[in-house]
Amino acid sequence: MKKIFVVANWKMNPLTKREAEKLFSEARKIKNKNCTMVICPPFPFLSLGKNLSLGAQNCAFQKSGSVTGEVSPYMLKDISCDYVILGHSERRRLLGESLETINKKVKVAISSGITPILCVSEETKDELIAIDQIREQIQVMTKKVSFSKIIIVYEPLFAITPGDPCPIHLAAKRRVLVKSIISKINSRAKDTPVLYGGSVDEKNCKDYIEEANFQGLLVGASSLDAKKFKKIVESI
Ligand code: PGA
To answer: CA–CA separation, 189 vs 205, rounded Å?
Structure first.
């Protein structure tokens, strides 16, 4: 049986170390042997997450050097951080991150030994444009990248909190699309885990796994509520 990933994306929350410690300690109580649970807090809280699988929410596009304000994936790996979320639509939209820059980040993260959790989104309700967007994002962000070293998340823009969760039938269709795009690029990509993200909660989480066949979930808002997050991880 394939392991299911549940990735908690805390985004720019919580605001205090005390609250972060509380969330980490609740996360340590969660039990599900079939699931790899990855917690992605903001950088200042990463070192509080001992004995948990950790991910960062960004990394630099190069290994080291004069890049003020950036954090090398090599530094992250050195503090036991094994994953990094890259390509999130919030960083592309609000911070102007380009697909080419994300591709550089993916490559340097892999070279440091970190697994990129690469987000692919669609930004329109127009079916044909959406399909083109997904294809272009995947092609550019994964250029010269081994599909055995990454995890992909399908996360439509309209579904991110406070949006509405993506209907299961549409999510299922997009999972098949993502799988077919990556398999055309590289036949070994058939084993690349594809996750769903966008307004996942304790009520809809199972449907994305069991009905839409995703190999895991990227959970934002619901991961900041310890009870909801425990329900999500333990119910799948
Ligand atoms: P959400 O966020 O679960 O709050 O919609 C998911 C994400 O953007 O990672």
So the answer is: 25
Q: Is 169 in the active site?
A: no
Give nearest CA residue, ligand 1 atom 6: 220
Helix intervals (H) in the chain: 17-27, 73-78, 89-94, 99-112, 127-141, 168-185, 205-210, 226-235
Q: How far is the CA of 69 from the centre of ligand 1 (A)?
A: 25
Angle, in degrees to the nearest 10, between helices 127-141 and 168-185: 40
- The CA distances from residue 213 to 12, 90, 141, 224, in Å, are 29, 25, 24, 25
Contact 225, 232 (CB under 8 A): no
- Tens digits of per-residue pLDDT, 66-124? 999 999 999 999 999 999 999 999 999 999 999 999 999 999 999 999 999 999 999 88
Name the residue at shortest CA distance from atom 3 of ligand 1: 220
As a whole number of angstroms, the distance between CA 113 and CA 74 comes to: 8
Contact 55, 153 (CB under 8 A): no
Name the one residue in this structure whose structure tokens are 């949006």: 163
For ligand 1, residues with CB inside 6 Å are 9, 155, 160-161, 197-200, 218-222
Tokens of 20: 């972060």
CA-based angle 178:182:183, to the nearest 5?
Answer: 115
Compute the chain's Rg from CA coordinates.
17
Chain segment 20-30, per-residue pLDDT in tens = 999 999 999 99
pTM, two decimals, is: 0.97
